[in-house]
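Team,

Forwarding the record for the chain on the shared tracking sheet. I've put the sequence and predicted structure together so nobody has to dig through attachments.
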Amino acid sequence: MANPIKQFVIERMHDEPLMIAGFDVSFTNSALFMVIALVVSTAFFTLATRKKTMVPNRLQMTAEVTYMFIANMVRDTIGPKGAKYFPFVFTMFIFVLMGNVLGLVPYSFTYTSHLAVTGGLALMVFFMVILFGLFTHRFKFFSLFAPAGAPWFIYPILVPIELISFFVRPLTLSVRLFANMMAGHIILKVVASFAIAAASVGGGYVLLSVFPVMVNFLMITFEFLVAAIQAYVFAILTCVYLKDSVELHH
């Protein structure tokens, strides 16, 4: 049976490592599919919005539905002030969605199945939340960790709990996405390996290989749904964190 973990190995796209200031900055398969995601998403929205018509075609309709879906989510979660954060949330959603979906293409690479990538995205959200909070409220932002209305004598317990829950957000945000993507792809690989193994034996086992193939087909369909849901969860949690930072309440 093929190693199901091998699909997650990051490999250089060239022979010699590219070192800058002692750091290996080689162009890898992960970076390649990030570039592909950028090119595909940019090309899609450029083509979809190039010719706007009263009766939208499929490309334009898909782009408009995606845009309005995220715009409504931002407005409903953050409120009227959320419009200025829409570009950030929309970019995060598309980048995560493309990583999840591209990974379902045969011989591709799922960059969202690596904790380094999801961790980087989560840290970006984390620092942007802090930056927006400080820019909006200055030092009043730190009142987020001492909710108003709580009895003064529980602050020694409440403040550490709020700090821990705040600083653990990047970890939970990144691990949730990474774990779901990795687990789904491992299961797909294992089921596909059963089908290949059964077919390679020959005889009546060829008929048995049909069952795991059908299961894998259904699972791939399900994984497309999971890919969209995980991108949505990442985006909605980003909105929730931004709302806490902007409105200073839970």
